[in-house]
Structures are given as structure tokens and as C-alpha cells.
Design brief:
The protein contains eleven helices and 34 strands. By secondary structure, it is an alpha+beta fold. An eight-stranded antiparallel beta sheet has the order 3-4-14-11-10-7-8-26, with helices on one face. An eight-stranded parallel beta sheet has the order 27-25-24-23-19-18-15-28, sandwiched between helices. Strands 1, 2, 5, 6, 9, 12 and 13 form a seven-stranded antiparallel beta sheet that branches. β23, α8 and β24 form a beta-alpha-beta unit. α5 runs parallel beside α6. The longest helix is centred in the C-terminal third of the chain and has 21 residues. The chain starts with a helix and ends with a strand.
């Protein structure tokens, strides 16, 4: 009899599993693989998927991939749909679309923020995780003559693959949502010990615990003209640095915070270094004398800490400027090389023409020298290193220090891990998860301005990254959410809906020409009245965050549209946030939600 009940229990468990993941297909499933050579005709292969449990595995051994390919495209057999069919696709950057009937078009996402792609069609639903050659991948969707195709493209650019192309297709049931897909990848990352929940990570890490309970406040202190009128700078032609917030003035900011009752924040000093923000990297020392110099910086750090604030600074190891020759640090040997052997400069910024660097060289040449000096200033908290986590890893073709993208990722993680150890934690610009194991805070996850026009075949932006990483990595969801209390109400709602950590920025605007990616409204302190009013707006964010900061420790378990311009976000402790983007009041479960407002429903 006991055996009978055990069999019934096993049968019930299998039935539940079958219901969750859907039926395992009996036929031999084959993915369509297209090989595009630099010269010649495209070749199509059909590669069998090996199914184990609810995962279908695709593997293209590197030895089987011909030389000279520009790209390899892979499409799962379920990832094709006719216009008008039910289903959706969601890219790793959160861009989401459905198979609606509309004009032909295409969209590609070359930024592998996470190596995943979610698709649901009437034939089945999968979350693809790219486990081999992930750094060469981009996701795409195309619509031609009423037929959709969604897949992943590996950009080989004629290089020999350094590992097998591998994809794990996690099979989901017919009712699958993007929230289900996000939770699968979160579990994958935790199970593979890539990440650890924040509740565990703060143990023994007081700097991280402080940051989780506080806002991020960035203070841009000085900068040269951006973009620079002088591309290649030296001691004779370097444009003057504009000192805007001196170390003495920063101490007055700290005093105003305390005066207005903002009792907790993590300050990050930007442009404190010689030449100001992006002024002479990799030279950062001494602290710019026009701001007060090294001793005044130490005094400012002590002042902030005495008043109960955490304080760190901003540095950069991904870019270099010829202006660093003024301090004797310019050397082309630490720069990244393109395939043709040339240096890669792609923009002109404060220090002039910006050159990409090799992270292995930067670690060996500068890390061990810089961080003892940074520690001597007294900085403790989530030290900020710019750029790295908001770009894909890069290939370095130097003959002296070659790196694949995999190698680039490895050395970036070494820099991050070292900063965590030396200063107490690490923040960077974005949420690209190749370095997520050593990332504590992402300054912003998306550059898309909420409410602005979407690309072709995209209908909305969903918090896929946040479903994966909220409760693990502190983050601010959008560039537009910076200084959200002086922005339009959409900025505030998106910060709340996506569970973000507020970020305020004194002088977020510093370009004299070009797009202000954090918006055209700013927080300043040029006069005492400006300072008082700016801190007043920061205090609004402080008060709001104080009521909701406990959610930094919770996973975002579910997110969905529950009505027209009405969204529900559910956290792992049962808290629900209902956000209303309508111009009129709405009701939900007997409660009124104001226009462009929200309610918090606790369990």
C-alpha cells in the first residue's frame, strides 16, 4: 500500500512538471543554422537539439565552424511565427514585442547585457541561454511578408572561434511570461554560483549594507570642455579645467544635507582628479589643486564620514587620453589594438581623443599603484569604475598582449574584484552581466528614455534585467531616472515600478554640445540658494526611499501589465506595487491610484 501511494505521489509530481514545462517533443528537433562567409554563398545547416529534462542543448564544435565566417545565425524551430499569431519575444535589454500584423521590419540588439533571449509562439516557449561564444552574440527579430523569425547571431568577423557555440534552450509551458523567463535565468546564475542574493552578500560587508540602505549622490566637481576642441592634448594646448565644486564647497553640501534631514547617502566624487572628469586618464593623481588638492580632499572625506555618510570616488580604466603625457603616463603599449593593428579611438571627450585600453595592461600597470593612494584619502564604500559594465567586452589584437573577449572579461573582473577588496565595494556604469560576480551597483541599466519612441517591432520595455538581478545587485533602472524628483512623473514611476535605488547627480549636465543622456533638468549648487533648493529636491527622494528601501533586498518575482497603462510589480516578500501611467485616477482592488501615481500593497 505504501508503494502504491509513493507511485501516486511520483505520478502527481511528474504531472505537475509536465504542466509547468509543457510536453517534451518526440520528433527530432533541429535548429536552423546559417553560416555567412566574408566571401561566397551562405550555407544552411539543420542541427539536432539534444533534450535532457526541460532543456534542449545546441552545440556547434569550434572545429566544425569554417574559417572566414562573418556571422553565424541560429534559430530554434519554435521561434518562427506568422503575423497575427499569439506569443512574444523579449530581448536581454528588456525590449519586448508581439507577433502583430504590421509592416515589414527588423530589430537587432547588439548589446549582450545578459546572454539570454526569450520567445513564445504557438509551437512552444523557450528561454535561450548562450553558454558558448556569448560575447560575440546579438539577438534579432525580422518580419518579412507576414513571417517573423527570432534568433541569435554570432559575429565572428572572420576570427577563429575560441570556444564552441553553445545554447541551452529552457522549455516553458504554454502560459509562460517574461517573468518566468527572468526567474529561470536568476536561478541559473545562483545555481552556478555566479551571484549571491544581497541578503547574504551584506554579511561581513558593512559598506555594501550601508549602500543598500541609502541613495547614490554623485558630485561632479570639475571638467574641461566636452567634447574637447583639442583632440591630442599636451602641456601647451590643454584646455583649462573648470572648477565647479571645490572640496570646501562639497563640505557645505554635506552640511546642507544634515541641515535638511538627509541623514544617509553614499557620495561619489566625480572629476576630483587632475584635469577633472575624464581629463587625463590614466593619470588621476594628484587631486586637482584647483579644487583644493590632496589635503583638502582628505578633509572633505573626513567631514562626510563624520556626519555619517559613505563616500567614494569615480575612476576609469577603460579609456586613456594623450593628455596623460603631462604627468608622464602616456604609453601606447597599454592601449587596445584593432585587428588591423591600429589604435581604437571613437569619441572626443574631456581629455581629447579617447583611446580604448587593454584591461590586462591597466591592471598590471596601474591597479596596484592607484588603490593604496585612493585608500590614503580615506575613501570607503562602493568605489566607482566607469564604462566597463555598460559595454560588451572588446577584443585586443595587440601582438604583445592579445585578448579575446573572454580574456577581456577575465581581466575586467580582476579589476572589479580588487576594488571590492581594497575599498569595500564596486559600482560601474551599467548592468552587463559578464562582470556581475564582482559588481555591487549599476549606475543605470537602460539608456532608453521611458515614453520615447521604440525601435521597429518593439512595443514596450519590460524589467527583465530587474527580475533577474533585483535583490542581488543595487541598481538605478534608467539614465532618465537620475534626479527624478525634478523630472517628469514618468521618471519617478519607472524608478518605483522597477524597484530602483535613487540616484541624484550634481551637474549631471556637463556637455557644451551633444545629447544629455541623463536629461535636460539638473541639480546644481552655484549659489547658496541653488544648493538649498537642490537638497530640498533630494530630500523628497530620500523620504520616499526610506519607506521602500527594504525592497532592495527582495527579488522582483513578477511584473505584468494589468490594464491600459497600469502595471503590477510583485516582490519576493509579497509586496506589490501598482503604477498608473494614465492621466486619470484608476481603481485596483478597491483602492484608488492617482494619475501618474502608485500604491504599495503589503502582504
Amino acid at each position: 500500500m505504501k508503494m502504491y501511494f509513493r507511485l501516486l505521489a511520483v505520478f502527481a509530481m511528474l504531472t505537475a512538471l509536465f504542466t509547468m514545462i509543457g510536453p517534451v517533443q518526440a520528433e527530432d528537433l533541429k535548429a536552423e543554422v546559417r553560416l555567412f562567409p566574408a566571401k561566397g554563398k551562405m550555407e544552411t545547416r539543420f542541427v539536432s537539439l539534444e533534450q535532457k529534462g526541460n532543456i534542449q542543448y545546441l552545440r556547434l564544435p569550434k572545429e566544425s565552424i569554417p574559417a572566414g565566417l562573418k556571422t553565424v545565425e541560429v534559430e530554434h524551430p519554435w521561434n518562427k511565427a506568422k503575423a497575427g499569431e499569439e506569443g512574444f519575444y523579449v530581448f536581454c535589454n528588456g525590449m519586448y514585442g508581439t507577433f502583430q500584423d504590421r509592416p515589414d521590419g527588423s530589430y537587432k540588439n547588439p548589446h549582450t547585457v545578459m546572454p539570454i533571449l526569450g520567445v513564445k509562439t504557438p509551437r512552444g516557449a523557450t528561454l535561450a541561454i548562450f553558454t558558448g561564444m556569448r560575447y560575440e552574440s546579438e539577438q534579432y527579430v525580422s518580419l518579412k511578408k507576414g513571417s517573423y523569425a527570432v534568433g541569435v547571431r554570432f559575429k565572428l568577423e572572420e576570427q577563429v572561434p575560441y570556444e564552441d557555440i553553445k545554447i541551452e534552450y529552457n522549455v516553458l509551458g504554454k502560459d509562460a511570461t517574461y517573468s518566468d523567463m527572468g526567474r529561470i535565468y536568476r536561478k541559473y546564475q545562483i545555481d552556478h554560483k555566479v551571484v549571491v542574493p544581497l541578503k547574504e552578500r551584506v554579511k561581513g560587508r558593512p559598506e555594501l549594507a550601508y549602500a543598500a540602505d541609502s541613495m547614490e549622490v554623485r558630485v561632479r566637481m570639475g571638467w574641461k570642455p566636452v567634447p574637447s576642441p583639442v583632440g591630442e592634448q599636451n602641456a601647451e594646448n590643454e584646455p583649462p579645467m573648470k572648477p565647479v565644486i571645490t572640496f570646501d564647497r562639497f563640505q557645505q553640501i554635506v552640511e546642507e544635507f544634515k541641515k535638511q534631514g538627509v541623514n544617509k547617502a553614499e557620495f561619489c566624487l566625480v572629476g576630483w582628479n587632475i584635469g577633472g572628469h575624464d581629463g587625463r586618464y590614466p593619470q588621476i593623481f594628484p587631486a586637482d589643486p584647483r579644487l583644493g588638492g590632496d589635503e583638502k580632499l582628505k578633509e572633505a572625506v573626513k567631514k562626510a564620514q563624520k556626519e555619517g555618510f559613505q563616500i567614494v570616488c569615480h575612476t576609469n580604466y577603460s579609456d586613456a587620453y594623450r593628455a596623460s603625457q603631462i604627468g608622464g603616463l602616456w604609453d601606447e603599449n597599454y592601449l587596445l589594438r584593432k585587428k588591423d593593428g591600429n589604435l581604437n579611438t571613437y569619441i572626443t571627450w574631456g581629455g581629447g581623443n579617447m583611446y580604448e585600453t587593454c584591461p590586462m595592461c591597466m591592471y598590471k600597470r596601474f591597479f596596484e599603484k592607484d588603490f593604496p593612494k585612493l585608500k590614503s584619502f580615506g575613501f570607503r564604500g562602493l568605489h566607482y569604475i566607469d564604462v566597463f559594465s555598460t559595454v560588451n567586452p572588446r577584443t585586443c589584437w595587440s601582438k604583445d598582449h592579445p585578448l579575446t573577449k573572454e580574456g577581456y572579461a577575465k581581466w575586467t573582473k580582476k579589476i572589479f574584484a580588487g576594488a571590492q577588496k581594497e575599498i569595500g565595494g564596486l559600482g560601474s556604469e551599467g548592468g552587463f552581466d559578464y562582470c556581475i560576480s564582482n559588481l555591487d551597483y549599476a549606475l543605470y541599466i537602460s539608456f532608453h528614455k521611458p515614453g520615447s519612441k521604440y525601435p521597429a517591432l518593439i512595443e514596450r520595455h519590460v524589467p527583465l534585467w530587474h527580475i533577474v538581478y533585483n535583490g542581488i545587485i543595487l541598481n538605478n533602472p534608467y539614465t532618465h531616472c537620475a534626479n527624478y524628483t525634478i523630472k517628469d512623473p514618468v521618471a519617478r514611476l519607472k524608478l518605483i515600478e522597477f524597484g530602483g535605488r535613487p540616484m541624484f547627480y550634481f551637474y549631471s549636465i556637463f556637455l557644451h554640445k551633444g545629447k544629455n543622456w541623463m536629461g535636460d533638468a539638473d541639480i546644481t549648487c552655484g549659489t547658496d540658494e541653488e544648493l538649498v533648493q537642490s537638497v530640498k529636491k533630494i530630500k523628497e527622494g530620500y523620504d520616499e526611499f526610506e519607506k521602500m528601501k527594504y525592497l532592495q533586498y527582495e527579488f522582483m518575482n513578477d511584473h505584468s501589465m494589468i490594464g491600459e497603462n497600469l502595471f503590477q510589480t510583485t516582490f519576493s516578500d509579497g509586496t506589490r506595487i501598482i503604477t498608473n501611467y494614465n492621466e486619470a485616477e484608476r481603481s485596483f482592488e478597491g483602492k484608488k491610484i492617482p494619475a501618474f501615481g502608485y500604491i504599495v500593497l503589503k502582504p
